[in-house]
Design goal:
This is DUF1801 domain-containing protein. By secondary structure, the protein is α+β, with helices and mostly antiparallel strands. It contains 3 helices and 5 strands; from the N terminus they run ααβββββα.
């Protein structure tokens, strides 16, 4: 069984619905490559941009599904939706139901995260 099958088989029905909706939104950005890291899907361009972490996969959130931005501290959080918790760099949005996902808002934040990745990468050249 591959890593993706293992991931999907670990999910509750609700988590599966949330994860599917989030993956659908991420798939709008064909430049992002999906890879399983720490048992969950991460999305890369030049570096890690974001991840989807359901509560069923430890040591994830206690409940729901987290959509995490690896460089979340650099994102313009003008809607004040990012959860900083006790982290310095990775910020998340936790979803408990598929209907909570605001597609246009998530796309806006993803576009910002991808632009950050591109600017960090161009500085390193």
């Amino acid at each position: 069984m591959d890593k993706f099958e293992t991931f999907y088989q670990s999910l509750t029905k609700n988590e599966f619905q949330i994860v599917s909706k989030l993956k659908e939104i991420v798939s709008i950005f064909p430049s992002l490559k999906e890879k399983i890291s720490y048992s969950v899907p991460y999305y890369f361009k030049n570096s890690r941009i974001c991840f989807i972490w359901p509560a069923s996969i430890k040591p994830g959130p206690k409940a729901g599904v987290q959509f995490g931005f690896c460089n979340g501290y650099l994102i313009n959080d003008k809607h004040n939706i990012l959860e900083k918790e006790n982290r310095k760099q990775v910020y998340c949005i936790t979803y408990h139901h598929p209907n909570q996902i605001n597609k246009s808002l998530l796309i806006e934040y993803l576009e910002n995260a991808i632009a950050i990745d591109e600017s960090l990468f161009s500085k390193n050249k």
